[in-house]
Amino acid sequence: MKNIFKKGDVRFLASLVVFALFIFLSHEVLQRLKSAPDETNDSSAGNKYYKAGAKASADSITARDKSSPAKITVKPLKKPDKAYVAIVVDDLGVNFRLAKRFMELGPDFTFSVLPGRTYTTKIAKAVKESGFDLMLHLPMEPYSYPEDDPGDGALFLSMSGGEIRRGLNEMLALIPGIQGVNNHMGARFSEDCAKMSVVMSILKENDMFFLDSKTSKLSCGTKTAREYGVPSASRTVFLDNDKARSKILKQLDTLIRKSKRYGFAVAICHPYPETADTFKDLQKILDDNNIEIKSMSEIIKLSMLREKEKQARFITLGAMVQQ
Predict the structure, then answer these.
(1) In terms of residue numbers, what domain contains 174?
(2) Strands (E), 55-178
(3) What is the pLDDT of residue 314?
(4) Which residues are bridge partners to 268 per DSSP?
(5) Closest to 135 measured CA to CA, from 183, 103, 191
(6) Are residues 23 and 172 in the same domain?
(7) CA spacing 20 to 30 A to 136: which of 58, 90, 96, 278?
(8) Helices (H), 140-213
(9) Average model confidence (pLDDT) for the chain?
(10) 316 within some domain
(11) So what's the pLDDT on residue 309?
């Protein structure tokens, strides 16, 4: 019998059959999904809460135990009504006049002093008398050492745990009123979790917090801080690595955007005249964006509260998955 279909026609008809089968199977899958128990759909929404800064769903996440009518409800992370920033002025100790200028600018800055510098003690005293937060800008070994010397009181990987402990305790004793610590340089040292553990044990004993300057993406800072129960946070942006006004303003814009996304953010700057000049407009810039500047100790509290909220949701979501 002569073939009445051309090869092209056969392919076309085959395509129609496959398409019809696809539609039929899709319909069946949709019907099964619609008839599935509610807890399957609800539990899948939990993934939103693992994403930092993600917009929380307006609905609660619920799951029903098959053997009990009781529900587990996880409320979404509350979106903050206002965003907050901390601005830490570090590398202080060499120029008292410039340090005083930042104190007189108005906003609630946090000040971090280097140990063993000419005006370290004088600046620290002025900071406390003015009611600002005071931190120790703790020198640590960078990868570029000895080309770049972190300075007096620096911690090195070659030091034993006992030497690190004695050195840090001596620095804290020489500068009364220290509330927390952030690292100066330290890309190499901060990557060594064993050495950072010694630092965290001392901060824990002295009821201090830790701000990771994040001079290395591989820093163990916040990880070891959590292990030792030391309140901690990480630097979000450096404001004045480039001292040009336009660059500082650009970094301020990044700080504002990050704070609005996550609820808070942390900036580090330095006692440069160019930075002080730019900061004359800082309060207006923050007010225009509904941003409030807070001390580092207050931001640490916000950071810890946020961490506890996320941990609670992680535990509850885990229990829901097990059901």
Answers:
(1) 83-307
(2) 61-64, 71-74, 83-92, 110-113, 133-140
(3) 64
(4) 88, 238
(5) 183
(6) no
(7) 278
(8) 161-174, 193-205
(9) 82
(10) no
(11) 80
3-state secondary structure of 198: helix
Q: Are residues 108 and 252 in the same domain?
A: yes
126-146: b (≥16 Cβ within 10 Å) or e: bbbeeebbbbbbbbbbbeebe
CB atoms within 10 A of CB 86: 29
Structural tokens at position 187: 């890309």
- Does one domain contain both 8 and 149? no
Of 59, 97, 57, residue with least CA distance to 79: 57
Number of domains in the chain: 2
Coarse DSSP helix, strand, coil percentages of the chain, rounded to the nearest 5 percent: 50, 15, 35
Q: What is the pLDDT of residues 160-184, one digit of tens each?
A: 999 999 999 999 999 999 999 999 9
Q: Cite the beta strand spans of the chain per DSSP E.
A: 61-64, 71-74, 83-92, 110-113, 133-140, 180-185, 209-212, 232-234, 237-238, 264-269, 291-293
Regarding whether 116 and 20 lie in a shared domain, the answer is no
Does 243 reside within a domain? yes
Domain co-membership, 173 together with 101: yes
Say how far apart CA 196 and CA 201 lie, in whole Å: 9
Q: Which residues of the chain have pLDDT under 50?
A: 1-2, 4-5, 29-76
pLDDT at 308: 80
Q: Hey, how many other C-beta atoms are within 10 angstroms of the C-beta on 323?
A: 13
Q: What angle do CA 186, 191, 194 make, to 5 degrees?
A: 110
Model pLDDT, residue 141: 98
What confidence tens digit (pLDDT) does each residue in 23-47 have? 665 555 444 433 333 333 323 333 3
pLDDT for the residue 16: 63
Pick from 254, 248, 259, 267: nearest CA to 291: 259
Q: Six-digit token pair at 111?
A: 């000040």
In a domain, 78, yes or no: no
